[in-house]
Amino acid sequence: MREFETIGRYHDHWSYVLVSAPDRFREIGDDAFVADQQKELEDAFDQLRSGFHFAERKLKDERLAGIAAELIEMSLEAYLAGDTKTGAHTLQECEGLIWPSYRQNVKYAIEAEKRAFGENVVYAGVEPSPFPYEGSEADLNADQADLLALAKKWCRSYQAWNQHFQFFSWVVDMEGTVRRTSVEPKKDDHPVLRPLQRSWGFKRLKELAESGEIRACVLMEIVNPLGDGLVSYHLEARGQPRVSAIQQFKYQKHKFRYKLMRFLKYPDGGFKYNAMRYHIEEPQFFSLDTDAV
């Protein structure tokens, strides 16, 4: 059983499960799919349980921890029953319960509390949210589509040149100008909106949205950018649901003495990208009842 040294490593495993479950688990360091996908799925959830002490310490509430633990079980049940969407969305809701920056409106936690404790106290009288659900590229508005293309371009550029990175963010202001709010990528020639963020820029984007200074934004985060990992583009626009575009990638190992030689031979840096998946979610920066621009 894998032991997680930090809560960050534990969270990385959540991301891995979300993009791999139920039947896309791959061999470590190989592009081949694992032969026994169900066993790999069950093992992955065993690891979520084994590291759950991190979640308990973060939640600091016995009842919320019980709800989160039940959401994990409900997610696995859905996956094993062939309901991939419910399995993924239940696990995402659990993730948001533990890590507030990923929080979504309540949907499955109402049932989880009743299953765990027999009644609803935390979620008494709460109606389930219609989010999240599976979407497509067609769910992006014009600003979101432009921001996705921009963030994806820089993400792949950094990967191709073997540069380590974690977060990028841009906004569209009320006049329609695209502005960068993250320190990286420094070579991006869009005007910047200070103060620039060196790490996770959730709080800054929320402030800009709530103050009415912007009409759209993208927050990109990546796990293991120079190996096998995944990238998430969280796209929001005024009056629209959030679209989280998520993509898993694999690094195809090639031996080159110089970075330039590898780049000329493999312009994509030697990475193989799976199809993008689009999750439609409750917005975290804007409000859905805000008039669309």
Provide a descriptive summary of the structure in words.
With about 290 residues, the chain is an alpha+beta fold. It folds into 2 domains: about 5-130, no CATH class; about 135-280, no CATH class. It is built from 9 helices and 9 strands. The protein has helices spanning about 5-20, 35-50, 50-60, 60-80, 85-100, 110-115, 140-160, 200-210, 260-265; strands at about 135, 165-175, 180, 190-195, 215-225, 230-235, 240-250, 270-275, 275-280. Strands 1, 2, 3, 4, 5, 6, 7, 8 and 9 form a 9-stranded mixed beta sheet that branches. Helix 2 packs antiparallel against helix 4 and helix 4 (about 60-80) packs across helix 6. The N and C termini lie far apart (about 50 Å). About 35% of the residues are buried.
Short structural description:
With 293 residues, the chain is of the alpha+beta class. 39% of the residues lie in helices and 19% in strands.
Class of secondary structure makeup: alpha+beta
Report Rg.
20 Å
Average pLDDT rating: 90
How many domains?
2
Q: What does the largest sheet look like? A: 9 strands, mixed
**Percentage of helical residues?**
25-40%
List keywords for this structure.
single chain; 293 residues; alpha+beta; 9-stranded mixed β-sheet; 9 helices; globular
Lay out the secondary structure.
Blueprint: H1 7-20, H2 37-50, H3 52-59, H4 62-80, H5 84-98, H6 109-117, E1 133-134, H7 142-160, E2 167-173, E3 178-182, E4 192-197, H8 202-210, E5 214-223, E6 229-237, E7 242-251, H9 259-265, E8 271-273, E9 277-281
Helix pairs in contact: 1-2, 2-4, 3-4, 4-5, 4-6
